[in-house]
Amino acid sequence: MVSGETSPLLGHYRTSSTKLCLPRYDDSSSLQDGNLRVFKWPSMEIILNESKSHSTVKDLHFSSDGKLLVSLGSGGPCRVWDISSSIVLTSLPNENRETFSCCRFSQISDGTQVLYIAVVTDKGGSILTWNTKTWERMSSKHITRDTISALNVSADGKYLACGTPSGDIVIVNSTNMRIHTMVKKAHLGIVTALAFSPDSRTLASISLDSSARVTKIEEKKEGGFNLWIAMFIILVAIAIYFLKVHGILK
């Protein structure tokens, strides 16, 4: 993973990116051994080298300024690292038998940086929102009855995208955490990666079934709720008119 703007599906990253973070794999078993290393790019100087950071490393993500790195494993807490000092700033615990699956830094509408963590609960997949100053939970939102196998956030922070083992894609509005778009069976197999276009108008997804898909994100028209209110008022006015005409209401 490279700090800065990345697009793993397209194999593209900005040349201004300065840090590279990769989970280390055991050559004999091809399984993650939990070692975490952060390199400067392009010198490949190691600036963080933590053995057994997790039992296995499941997901990693840099903050937009490249100062923080979040990592999570197959069990236990999610860790937030300060890159400059190579220390753990905080460990975020899972509660009520939650299992962390994916993590992404982003920002909300007022510019505040937040951390999203997708979790598996008894009810399915949910997204936790954490304050990156106090490291307290801000909210928890149930998204799907399925688990969440992939997570990403648009560059403007407006949308979150979730993929499921059933091949579904769920796009969520980050402002109210309501589902914006649901694509059932977008893939035949588990969704493994998601990436938004720079303008946040399309979403690319790939699956273990070797398929790739691009989903267009349609803007929802505002004022729909106000239209229903206007229609209700008109209907009430018509009803009152007829009641008066027939002498029922004076």
From TrEMBL:
<keyword id="KW-1133">Transmembrane helix</keyword>
<keyword id="KW-0812">Transmembrane</keyword>
<dbReference type="GO" id="GO:0005085">
    <property type="term" value="F:guanyl-nucleotide exchange factor activity"/>
</dbReference>
<dbReference type="InterPro" id="IPR001680">
    <property type="entry name" value="WD40_rpt"/>
</dbReference>
<dbReference type="InterPro" id="IPR015943">
    <property type="entry name" value="WD40/YVTN_repeat-like_dom_sf"/>
</dbReference>
<keyword id="KW-0813">Transport</keyword>
<protein>
    <submittedName>
        <fullName>Uncharacterized protein</fullName>
    </submittedName>
</protein>
<keyword id="KW-0472">Membrane</keyword>
<keyword id="KW-0653">Protein transport</keyword>
<keyword id="KW-0256">Endoplasmic reticulum</keyword>
<feature type="transmembrane region" description="Helical">
    <location>
        <begin position="225"/>
        <end position="243"/>
    </location>
</feature>
<dbReference type="GO" id="GO:0015031">
    <property type="term" value="P:protein transport"/>
</dbReference>
<keyword id="KW-0853">WD repeat</keyword>
<feature type="repeat" description="WD">
    <location>
        <begin position="50"/>
        <end position="91"/>
    </location>
</feature>
<keyword id="KW-0677">Repeat</keyword>
<dbReference type="InterPro" id="IPR011047">
    <property type="entry name" value="Quinoprotein_ADH-like_sf"/>
</dbReference>
<dbReference type="GO" id="GO:0006888">
    <property type="term" value="P:endoplasmic reticulum to Golgi vesicle-mediated transport"/>
</dbReference>
<dbReference type="InterPro" id="IPR045260">
    <property type="entry name" value="Sec12-like"/>
</dbReference>
<keyword id="KW-0931">ER-Golgi transport</keyword>
<dbReference type="GO" id="GO:0003400">
    <property type="term" value="P:regulation of COPII vesicle coating"/>
</dbReference>
<dbReference type="GO" id="GO:0005789">
    <property type="term" value="C:endoplasmic reticulum membrane"/>
</dbReference>
<dbReference type="Pfam" id="PF00400">
    <property type="entry name" value="WD40"/>
</dbReference>
